[in-house]
Write a structure and sequence with these properties.
Elements: E1 2-6, H1 11-27, E2 32-38, H2 42-49, E3 53-57, H3 66-90, E4 94-97, H4 101-112, E5 117-121, H5 128-133, E6 139-142, H6 145-150, E7 156-158, H7 162-169, H8 175-178, E8 186-191, H9 198-211, E9 216-221, H10 227-233, E10 241-244, H11 250-256, E11 259-262, H12 266-275, E12 279-281, H13 291-301, E13 306-307, H14 315-326, H15 329-342, H16 347-361
Parallel strand pairs: 1-2, 1-4, 2-3, 4-5, 5-6, 6-7, 8-9, 8-11, 9-10, 11-12, 12-13
Length: 362
């Protein structure tokens, strides 16, 4: 089987694609893969470093003033020619787009050549690229019921994010061992994405001072760029507050902490639900179409998480909410159980089977 995978711009698009490819390799050792992305974004560095064949397209998002949008649209039209050349050379059996503007070019070109196509939507709000592709693709895979309802029902399946499969099969470690915390002491992990959040950090300076006197430990991820300043300003906190710049093994912390406080990125929520964690979500309001709030709402509506919108976030209210949750074992168990029900630990397996079915129908 020869597969072109396209994912562009952000880790939220790229890492689910990589997870699926890694799984397919375990099922079909003869499968060949070609990644198609941008020439200058994250995927152009990560994918070749992992040893996968990679082709970059010169494409830009349809953003900016009207003149810039017109220029970028022209660049996109030119990228269709490059995409057709890639298809002619590689001769894929199927092309799968995971979002980001490079996906639009290669998937549209494949559809025009009657090559089977599939797209994956990680968020509850359909991204612009996938909106463009809806009518042209053979199969659509999504992660949320809202997206499922907005896509055509005759070719859409709700199978989840491939990252859920990765964390479900990963060897996990206990947070108490990782941070030398007493075995029976409760733990709260607070992480606002891999880069951190300057706005939330400001509020947490006061919140962490109030939390240091409680009967639980806190792991607070500042983000690499903010770590030194936060560490200096909060140097007087006691040893129940652990400031770290970044976490390499987030699944272990999610699985073994008592409460995870996080953003509502697609990958993060896929991991939280796959591992069945109790979560307090603070959606980022700085994302396209406010999709994190919609992602979070699906969990909140099913009593699988609690949330605080950033506009309502303050130190006293945050600490009060955390204290109420961490001391309520019944509530924590309910959140964990309901999150687990929403998890898709077999996402990779199910998507792979859908690929095989799509090829059979062609």
């Amino acid at each position: 089987m020869k597969i072109i995978v396209s994912a562009g711009g952000t880790g939220g698009h790229l890492y689910p694609a990589l997870a699926l490819v890694d799984y397919i390799k375990t099922q079909d050792s003869d499968a060949e893969f070609l990644f198609v992305g941008t020439t200058d974004r994250l995927e152009s560095q990560v994918v070749p470093d992992l040893g996968y064949n990679y082709r970059g397209l010169k494409v830009k998002g349809l953003v900016g003033n009207p003149l810039q949008k017109a220029k970028n649209a022209l660049i996109f039209v030119k990228s269709l020619g490059a995409s057709n050349k890639i298809l002619k050379e590689f001769k894929p059996d199927i092309v799968i787009g995971f979002g980001g503007y490079p996906s639009a070019s290669i998937v549209l070109a494949a559809s025009g050549k009657h090559i089977p196509t599939m797209i994956h939507e990680q968020n509850s709000i359909i991204g612009l690229t996938n909106k463009i592709l809806i009518k042209r693709v053979d199969k659509i895979v999504c992660c949320y019921e809202k997206a499922m309802n907005d896509f055509p029902g005759n070719k859409t399946v709700l199978l989840g994010n491939p990252r859920a499969s990765v964390v479900s099969s990963k060897e996990l470690h206990d947070i108490h061992d990782l941070y030398d915390i007493e075995p029976n002491r409760k733990t709260v992990v607070i992480v606002m994405g891999s880069l951190g959040s300057s706005s939330v950090n400001e509020i947490m300076k006061a919140a962490l001072r109030k939390m240091q006197y409680e009967d639980y430990d806190v792991i607070y991820v500042t983000g690499k760029n903010y770590y030194d300043a936060m560490k200096e300003e909060l140097s007087d906190l006691n040893n129940s507050i652990h400031l770290v710049p970044y976490i390499d093994d987030m699944p272990s912390l999610i699985s073994s902490c008592d409460l995870i406080v996080s953003r509502a990125g697609a990958t993060t929520l896929a991991e939280i639900t796959a591992l069945g964690a109790a979560a307090l979500i603070i959606p980022s309001p700085y994302v396209v179409a406010n999709h994190q709030e919609y992602n979070a709402k699906e969990l909140v509506d099913k009593k699988a998480a609690c949330w605080i919108l950033e506009k309502d976030l303050n130190a006293e209210g945050f600490v009060s909410e955390v204290n109420q949750l961490i001391k309520d074992d019944t509530k924590l168990k309910t959140l964990k159980d309901n999150a687990k029900k929403l998890g898709k630990p077999n996402a990779c397996q199910d998507i792979y089977q859908e690929i095989l079915k799509t090829l059979e129908r062609k």
